[in-house]
Amino acid sequence: MNKIQISKYSERAIVVTGDTKPVKDILRTAGGKFNARLTNPTTHTPIMGWVFSKSRQNELEKLLTGNKISFDVVTPENINSGNHNDYIQDPGEIAADNWAANNL
Question: Taking a C-beta distance cutoff of 8 angstroms, is the pair 93, 10 a contact?
Fold first, then answer.
């Protein structure tokens, strides 16, 4: 199985991406919600992933490690710099941001 990645989604959420299909039952049981409408912050292409509360990250990492599931933790370098292009945004949020930029 390919590695999966745990990335910061927002101040209160993380997202698990990669080859998650083989471990979907574990992710669902751990409280994750699958979302097929995320956006890759670098390429701006659609991606799919499991969204979790940020407060559950340590628990999730222990669960994956205990089940011998390989994963990487990825933190965008500019997450606190004010450059919000490093966040993985929902397409609805992108549309709202674009509307606000053009209409306010």
Answer: no
Instruction: Please tell me the pTM assigned to this model.
Output: 0.68
Instruction: Sheet containing 71-74: give its strands across.
Output: 33-39, 46-53, 13-18, 4-8, 71-74
Burial call 64-98: b when 16+ CB within 10 Å, e when fewer: beeeebebeeeebeeeeeeeeebbbbbeeeeeeee
Q: What is the pLDDT along the chain (104 residues), one digit of tens a residue?
A: 458 999 887 778 889 999 999 999 999 999 999 999 987 655 677 888 999 999 999 999 999 999 999 999 887 654 444 444 445 556 666 666 667 677 76
